[in-house]
Amino acid sequence: MKKIIIYLTSVILLISVGCTEDVLNEEVYSTLPVDSYGNTEVEVNSLIAPIYTGLRSANNPITIAETCSDMAIAPTRKGGDWWDGGQYKDNRFGIWTAITNNTGSMYRTFMSRVAACNQILYMIENSPGITDKVPYLSQVRAARAFWYYELIDYYGNVPIVTDFTDLSKPVTKTRAEVYAFVMDELNDIKDVIRSDVSPSSYGKYTKGAVYTILAKMYLNALVWNPAGGAKWQECIDACNVVMGLDYSLTTIWNDNFAIFNENCPEHILTAINSPSARMGIISFTLHYLDYKALGTTRRGNNGIAAMPDYVRQFDLDDKRRGDDYSHKPGSFLIGPMIDPATGTTIITAHGRPLIHTIDITMIYGIDAEGWGQTEQEDGARCFKWPFENGVSHMQNDCAIFRLADIYLMKAECLVRLGQDNTEATSLVNEIRKRAFDDPAKLKTSVTLSDIYLERRLELAWESYTRQDQIRFGTFLDPIPGWRGAIDSHYLLFPIPQTSIDANPELIQNPGY
Amino acid sequence: MKKILNLIISFILSYINISRKVKLNSLFFFFGTILVFASSFGQENSISSPGNKNSGDLLALVIKKINTPSLFVANSNTIISDDQQRSITGIITDSQGEPLPGVNIIEKGTINGAVSDISGRFSINVASGNSILVFSFVGYTPQEITVGTQTSINITLEESAVGLDEVVVIGYGTQTKRLVSGSITSIDQKTFNTGVQRTAADMLQGKVAGLVITTSTGDVTSQQSMRLRGTASLTGSSEPFVVIDGVPGLSMNSVAAQDIESISVLKDASAAAIYGSRSASGVILITTKKGKSNQFTADYNGYLALDVVSNKPDVLTADEWREYVKANGMSWETFDQWDANTDWFGEILRTGITQNHDFSFSGGGATNNYRISVSFLSQEGVAKDNYQDRLNVRFSVNQKALNDRLSVSLIGSITQRDYQPNNSSNFILAYNMLPVYPVKYADGTWFDSTDYDQGNPLRNMTYNYDIRKRNLNYFNLKADLDITKHLSVGLNAYKQRQSTDRSRYYDSETQQGRTEGGVALRSFSNDDTQLIELTANYAIKLNNNDISVLAGYSYEDNYGQSSTAQNRSFVTNLFGANNLSAGENMQVGDVSSNADMNRLLSYFGRVNYSFKERYIVSAALRRDGSSKFGKNNKWGTFPSVSLAWRIIDEPFMQNIGILNDLKLRAGYGVSGNQDGLSPYQSLQLYGSSGTYYDNGAWHTAYSVNQNANPNLQWESTAMSNVGVDFSILGSRLGGTVEYYNKITSNLLYRYQVPVPPYLYSSMIANVGKMQNKGIEVSLTGDIIRTNDLRWTASINAAHNENKITRLSNEEFVTSAIKTGSVFVRGGSSNSTHIIEEGKQVGQFYGYLCTGIDASGLYIYDDMIDGVPGLTINDYTYIGKAQPKLTYGIDNSITYKDIELSFFWRGVYGNDLLNFSRLTYATTQWLPGANVLNEGLTNGLKTSPIYNSWYIEKGSFLRLENVNLAYTFHPDLLGINRVRVYFTGHNLLLLTKYVGVDPELSMNGLDPGIEGRNYYPKSRTYLFGINVSF
Question: I need a labelling partner for A215 at 20 to 30 A (CA). Which of A198, B146, B260, B499 fits?
Fold first, then answer.
């Protein structure tokens, strides 16, 4: 009997000891351990790809760059739709704070893109499978520089982080330091990054994209790095490099925004969308029942609309405006929405005809600060990227940079430098030629305010209004009927409180 | 015998050398082999067994062995001397003089035994006049009688009102109630809830002080949520850990309610910590019914139940809508063209019919027993799309061998469940659809609306489906071997597989399918669990000292895999979800599959010691290693100790007549919770992250998918518990009072981290601390105790106080977490609750509204921050979702063969957010969408905004069930007993809450909200019959 006890005891011990530590290691099946993937070119490409998929969130600023400037508004609708914690009221009234949701989430998006770039750079540097690292590194550094360019524009003073392995809490750097960092990065890579303009470089960070970022940095240098002085000539030089590459203006303006606009020759950097990775503007802007009139199957949530005065700057003959009845894509969707089944104007749930007016009127529940609710159907909607018939998604690619912008940037610098007005005028006219059938609408000479206006007509909804308004000094001005002049600290957005909570090393921008 | 042991050992030794993946399979083979050997030995043994003549002998032993943790071994060498042998007969009665059938009579120190028959009579041959007979029966105080010269012994067994000798199931063993030192509540068939019982939770609801079981929806496929002694986690569930027949970590769903014999709830850490890193929220031990040797029984239990909607939202009727709209000059022509008068909630709700049939039969021979049961439940929810059909087949076989020293048993269970959860978005549509809209046009075609939050909900329910077919099967092999009189070892091998096949189709004509032109989805998942446990028990009694020692090892392996495919845009709706390839718009992400695993490795031990059964000590230790823990924290240790002092047995207590029992208990222990940890969270991994475009083609992108935290570990709960058990007035009133203090540290939560350097803005980490402390009282008393009439009442009440005490450490800092989002139009980026140091989980946080002013605006207290003007700084604490008190009141009256019981269940002192009222008690949506009647009278003229005006008192008292039963014994067709019963469930609800029902989900960090997709509950009327053969 004793023998049996000894046998069994030893058996139990053996089983227990036989499977210990190794069984507590996790086996992965549908994910990849970081140290065992990324050794071939194909694998590395799939790991770099997030810098491009992440570009789609460059669309997000549409709601910020336009609703915080004088271009657009997301009014609270009767019943409370789009109140959403008052963030759009903050945007419209110029009273955003560190807890305003949308300005904060944009910061977090930009910063997470920077972090992703750092991780990818670390992966490339340590991948034994990549022998020539330069083409890879230059793409990713361009991407990181792009996000820092956005950060300088919106937030100014932000931490500079380049080392993925350093987990210490980063400290805030001044806008000037960040500016210098981005310039160094761009100068390092501008002439080693790929320069081809081809189907294989479509949507990629290329020489054209890097020089466009450079041009933007120079264009806004007086705002972002005033100590360094104006860089108008440098901007022209950078624009010239881009114009020397194989880009060209499309003959038809709308081709830039078409449903199938792949390899559009005017696009310099593009967020590429597909039926699965869609553009989101449709659900932000359309009324719940607009889909009936437009033939798409996606019902909108009735949010963002254009500011009335912005729409009214457009010449009625400007093809970029869009007309009130035929609903041919232009910048705006205006007018009565007709149900094709009945031929009559659609009636909303509030019992009103669905006519998108240019005017937006707050009439219900006006609060102490003057914010109230509008009728559901008020306001011109975004119609720049056409909606596809019979489906619910938008697969239109969305240009981040396009050549028309370069033309206008160069023209602006030429005028600012007081140089020959002929070239500036012809650059502007190249843009206007597509917008008007009548040659009488072309300019004979251009002033700064002509160029300012032309940028607004050409680039509505393309998230440049705020940047341009600041550069032209109109951002703090009153918006008649909506708000008075605002304090200069609103030229920068606040660092969101959630980010400061997570990292006490961050310093809030002055005035917040 | 030696041969067999050699075989066993060589088998086990070879098993050790086999790779881990085949180990479990080989162990099953090994057990199978043992079972075959054991059964052949069993037959041999049954022929030679001296006690074979008396069928009751081994029954007694079997029962004893099952119930005794130390595996008491009968001395099989006892020789019965013929010359002094005599036959004893007698009648056993209870204190009322009623005969007691089924009493065990054992000749002490032998395996000789008998069982009393239906009239209480017994007969047993004993060895000599020195023999001592032990009479025992569950719920009665055992008696020992020395035979002497008697040939007839008539005895009366006294009921032990507090059931001191009842056997209580504890972790890895059993104990008599007398010796229990932890906080354990055990309930059985006598006290289970009646009515429609799907799972053990239905039977337990309201019965155990401190165990709050919440039915938060009328959906018949959903599980109730359970909380024992409060919420103790911010991330994982705080559900108790469920152990069925010794198998840890099972779902309540895996056993049919009818197969449950008893349930033990281990409430404090000193009782639960033996289950280590998963027991911090308490442990529920379920014991299923087993067969009895030489006693064939067959049972049928069936019932039919009607579920009637108990309450539904008070939205405008067509006439009310017309009256209001016209009186207010609103445009109505486009909406009211069909002369319709539709009650949309009425259209999608119904009276549900439930039927249930259970058959079971059990029996056995001298060395074996079995039980087989089949249970079929078919249940319709009150929502027209909601149902479940469940078939459960269960068997248990037990075989003894080697002179009863080896016991091998196999339990198997197969559950097939076809069910369709309710699609609650249809309730949102029912709120919004106008009562003047018809369900169908006059020509029979469906009416529909495409406006915001609108669509025909009945059309959705008629054409769309989301059916799950779930199989759960498991097998548990157990072997127990007595090596010496004191030492026994046990092996337990368990294998489970659960698979679910889901088919979903949204018809292209319906609101849910029209955007995509029809959407079909199929998904399949398969989850496997394997478990091996080895235990050794050593028990010895030296004079007045009882010592037992348990040592154990456990290894658990879980593997899960799943796949999903969907497609969109179908030319025809005929295929439903059965021909995915017919769709024309498959998108990236529409096809996916994945797999994961986790393992748990444990060592545990326990020592129980008692002196004179008066001073009792129990100490346990468990060490758990989990694959889910980070590499820096792979192992956790969970100690516990408890003491009990049976004051009543002290000499100085003997003269205090009023007291019948008095025991003082105290315990302390540390247990863990790893429910908030998913596999792989401690690792840095690449996961697919959408697709990217490259030169005309789309490819899959990969990115690091989380912030890795190699320090991840379990949440750790330290609990102290003090309790008193007492019984007074001739054991007519007994009860328990307990106090506990539970401190959970290393709370898992997703903390905000800076980005960069981290890739993502949140990271799961062990940081916070939370306290739950409370008092529980349960009392049971016999109000009337006469021969024919008996009235027993019991009450249980629990008070728990939850407080978050810390949310930050050096590395992770947060002042407060705003949480909870229930959608109201324009209400995104609102939060309803706050998680903050010093507050409870479930703290409502928002503007304080004191009313509505003459112009229809909310009147806010805007001075919370001391500054006029309403800003976010005026948010304040506006309600608490956790109740101050939960209680149950049970009454059971029996008069001869008639039983009547009624059970009340209540909650006191909590606040609820009536979100449906927030959303729809307004005129804002008129005329195009419907609203609650209250909206016409409350005077509100602005957009609904979350504030304290919508926080309501949540106290309620529910007449949970009323049961009337009659039992009779027809002398017919071998029928032993027939019981017919009527049960009413949820017959009455007393509350001031104005929403649909105040019993709302208490899950997560935003408990206590009635959402606008709330599924109303039902009132149930049930008729049942129970026949025993």
Answer: A198
For residue B679, how many C-alpha atoms fall within 13 Å in the half-sphere facing its CB? Answer: 21
Distance CA B468, CA B498 (A): 12
Reported ipTM: the value is: 0.89
B833: left (phi over 0), alpha (psi -120 to 50) or beta: beta
Q: d(Cα B31, Cα B492) in Å, to the nearest integer?
A: 9
CA distance B433 to B458: 11
pLDDT value for A4: 56
Any chain B CB within 8 A of the CB of A31? yes
CA distance B913 to B954: 9
* Per-residue pLDDT at B601: 94
Q: Which of A26, A276, A504 sits opposite B680 (nearest CB)?
A: A26
Q: Which helix (H) or strand (E) holds A64?
A: helix A61-67
Residues of chain A contacting residue B571, judged by C-beta atoms under 8 Å apart: none
Q: Which helix (H) or strand (E) holds B374?
A: strand B368-380
> What pLDDT, on a 0 to 100 scale, did the predictor assign at position B79?
40
Q: Please give the pLDDT value at position B163.
A: 64
List A residues 384-413 in contact with B (Cβ-Cβ < 8 A).
391-392
Tell me the whole-structure pTM to 2 decimals: 0.86
Tell me the mean pLDDT in the region B764-770: 94
Task: List CB contacts (< 8 A) between B452 and chain A.
Answer: 288, 299, 302, 349
Q: Which of A52, A291, A364 sits opposite B692 (nearest CB)?
A: A52
In the structure encoding, which two tokens stand for residue B633, read together?
Answer: 């924290």
Least confident of A85-89, A269-273, A483-487, B18-22: B18-22
Around Cβ B940, how many Cβ atoms within 10 Å?
Answer: 19
Interface contact flag, A167 B757, Cβ < 8 Å: yes
Nearest beta carbon to residue B702 from set A46, A164, A274: A46
Give me the pLDDT at residue A284, please.
87
- For the cut 50, the answer to whether the pLDDT of residue B321 exceeds it is yes
The yes-or-no verdict on residue B671 having pLDDT over 90 is yes
A477 near B CB under 8 A: no
Mean pLDDT of all residues belonging to chain A: 91
Structure tokens at A115: 């972090």
Q: What angle do CA B398, B400, B404 make, to 5 degrees?
A: 145
pLDDT digits (tens, 9 = 90+) for A73-84: 999 998 888 988
Are the Cβ atoms of B685 and A504 closer than 8 angstroms?
Answer: no
Q: Which residues of A touch B601 (CB under 8 A)?
A: 19-20, 23-24
Determine what percent of chain B is predicted with pLDDT higher than 70: 91
Residue B191 has pLDDT above 90, yes or no: no
How far CA A502 is from CA of A74, A108, B205, B318, B872, in Å, comes to 30, 12, 42, 53, 20
Place of tokens 């030794």: B13
**Of residues A79, A170, A297, nearest to B514 (C-beta):** A297
**B267 neighbors B185 (Cβ within 8 angstroms):** yes
Q: How far is the CA of A87 from the CAs of A101, B397, B489, in angstroms?
A: 6, 67, 67
The verdict on a CB contact (< 8 Å) between A77 and B753 is no
